[in-house]
Amino acid sequence: MASDPVVFHCDADAFFAACHIAEDPGLATVPMVVAGSPSDRRGVVLTASYPARAFGVRTAMPLGRALALCPSLVVVPPAPALYRQRSRQMRAVFPTFSPLVEPLSIDEAWLDMTGGWHLWGPDPTHAARALQQAVQAACGLTVSVGVSANKMLAKQVSDWSKPAGITVLWPDEVPVRLWPRPVADLYGVGPKLTERLHHYGIETVGQLAALDDRRLVAWLGQIGLSLRARARGHDAAPVMRPMPTDTRSVGAETTLAQDVARASDARPVLLALADHVSSRLRAAGLLGRTVALKYKTHRFVSHTHQMQLAAATCYTDPLYRAAVRLFETRPHQDPVRLLGLTVSGWEAPSLQTRLDEGDAPQEEARAKAIDAIRQRFGAGAIGPARLLAHAPDLGGSSFERDHASQGPPDRGAG
Fold it and tell me: Domain-by-domain residue ranges, the chain?
């Protein structure tokens, strides 16, 4: 049994609020939220302490609404430096339990405990409890732990008994414990997708798990097959270490004028991002195979979704096709307010023997002509014709050294 797959998902409880409570224990018993200024788009609750949640205050709620529900609410401004410090302290604990750790965001990570959990006791919950105690001692935070045989199920159940809970769900328990739950409880199913599933009469996870291929694809497209696999408890993705922090990536991102949920609405932005990033790749003499889409939902929750190309590239079209595919298959289907595209995974130019489609020499010649025009007349002098009426501002572009999972604080859940 010690060699059977065991994965932990470790998730800090009310992370942003907990960081402030660790600094000032007097906040532990009062209703408190971390929130920005109500005068701009960030005037929402980033996270609420558990006493505040007792009043109905929730993450992503407008601050004015939160104050109406709880007039005695203590409002603490965000402190990104504090969150990074506490996150580093928490993450320093994980390698003492497993050599294989995959950060998911600033306050959560997967640990592959296969073959190692038995060092702490007769079942994995003993190791989970030891992990909670070690994190508490290291940084003053409580964490909840989901335990299962794969990443998806561990993530699915880590919030079932918050705060400071430990929940175990093995694949053979899925029909009894997961299928009766509302479909909205399934990891990756947001409000819009829930509404769509309800339209087709899908109310529970079990009903989704029972759908056949024909109806799934007709109703939801290819994303439906992925969701059904989750509903059945299937996930073959391994726990993976992040790329080294000194691995460079070229990226660009932009905040959207309006939230978008449909790929057709996102395509102009994705094309502009791909065109911008490809130009910078060529200027730097880089070819990359790893394409990552960053997106921030209308609830101010950031995620990344990435894929490997068949061949390393520095051209717009393969990056654009990858960006569209990543958008269409993103696990979180909520409307998004920010989109970003990054490329990494460098290969030497001699390794590029072909593009995914088309003729490489023609693509290279076209790219060189475009770059020459931009160098002489400016970046806006030429670009894809499809962008003539849809050119977003990419002033937020960046030449990055950050891995997606090690970026700034991105959510207040917990």
Answer: 1-169, 179-231, 249-406
In a 3-state reduction of DSSP, which class is residue 51? Answer: helix
Q: In which residue are the tokens 């050119």 written?
A: 391
Which residues pair with residue 255 across a beta bridge? 338
**CATH domain 179-231 topology:** DNA polymerase; domain 1 (1.10.150)
Rg (CA), the chain: 23
pLDDT 10s digits, 86-132: 999 999 999 999 989 988 888 999 999 998 888 898 999 999 999 99
Q: Which of 100-109, 198-207, 311-320, 344-353 ranks highest by mean pLDDT?
A: 198-207
Q: Which structure tokens are listed for 240? A: 């993976």
What would the DSSP string read from start to end of 292-358? Answer: EEEEEETTS-EEEEEEEEEEEE--HHHHHHHHHHHHHT-S--S-EEEEEEEEEEE--GGG----SSS
Q: What type of residue is 133?
A: Q
Query: Residue 8 and residue 125: Cα distance in Å, rounded?
Result: 10
**pLDDT band, very low/low/confident/very high, at 36 (cuts 50, 70, 90):** confident
* Catalytic residue set: 108
pLDDT of residue 37: 61
Report the chain's mean pLDDT, rounded to a whole number.
Answer: 82
Highest mean pLDDT among 38-52, 171-185, 276-290, 354-368: 171-185
Residues 6+ apart with CB under 8 A from 138: 89, 90, 92, 93
CA quadruple 8, 9, 13, 19: dihedral sign: positive
**Exposure on the CB side of residue 388, measured as CA atoms within 13 A:** 2
Task: Tell me the pairing of strands 108-112 and 101-105.
Answer: antiparallel
- Residue 183 has which token pair? 């479909």
**What is the rounded distance in angstroms from the CA atom of residue 314 to the CA atom of residue 76?**
44
Instruction: List the beta bridge partners of residue 96.
Output: none
Residue 251 bridge partners (DSSP): 342, 398
Q: What is the fold of 1-169?
A: Alpha-Beta Plaits (3.30.70)
Distance separating alpha carbons of residues 152 and 208, to the nearest angstrom = 16
The span from the CA of 13 to the CA of 17, in Å, is 9
CB atoms within 10 A of CB 327: 23
Confidence of residue 407 (pLDDT cuts 50, 70, 90): very low
Confidence class for position 41, pLDDT limits 50, 70, 90? very low
CATH topology of domain 249-406: Dna Ligase; domain 1 (3.30.1490)
Closest CA to 94 of 79, 104, 81: 104
